[in-house]
């Protein structure tokens, strides 16, 4: 783990793995340090910003360096269920690559509990970890120029839902009518880091 100053009142924590990043984020968020104004996780980093002139950064660093990150509890998290119609363009491709049937792909995807590790790419897009090993497949060789909003997809170790129409190279399993981002809502993004997510198959 490496701490890099990110301006006068912030630091970027570079982590060795996604698991370490999640543990650092959880430890800092759970502590509720009053002088921290933002904690932003990434795939292997956590950006920590403090109030100008405060000791928030020093407190956060002391906390993280003294914490048992292997035993860090993410604390209370929301549990969200997303209904999915598994009719994606790449469902059969995913099945062939995994060496299973399309129905077994659906069973694998709906049978797991996922955690939102971080968000990015587009407002409301959450990178969800916990994908079963057979579904950990590469991105498409040629990305699509347009992926419909609500598309449920997989790539590498992640699964996620496209909150709006955009280009993308993830393999599409299906689609949902759930609203992932609404700028007018009190809580614009449906998913936030630390949330637990389940997918439920509907017809």
UniProtKB/TrEMBL annotation:
UniProtKB keywords: ATP-binding, Hydrolase, Nucleotide-binding
Domain Carboxyltransferase: 1-191
Database matches in Pfam families: CT_C_D
Keyword Metal-binding attached: no
Molecular function per GO: hydrolase activity
Keyword Transferase tagged: no
Descriptive protein name: Allophanate hydrolase
Species this chain originates from: Amycolatopsis deserti
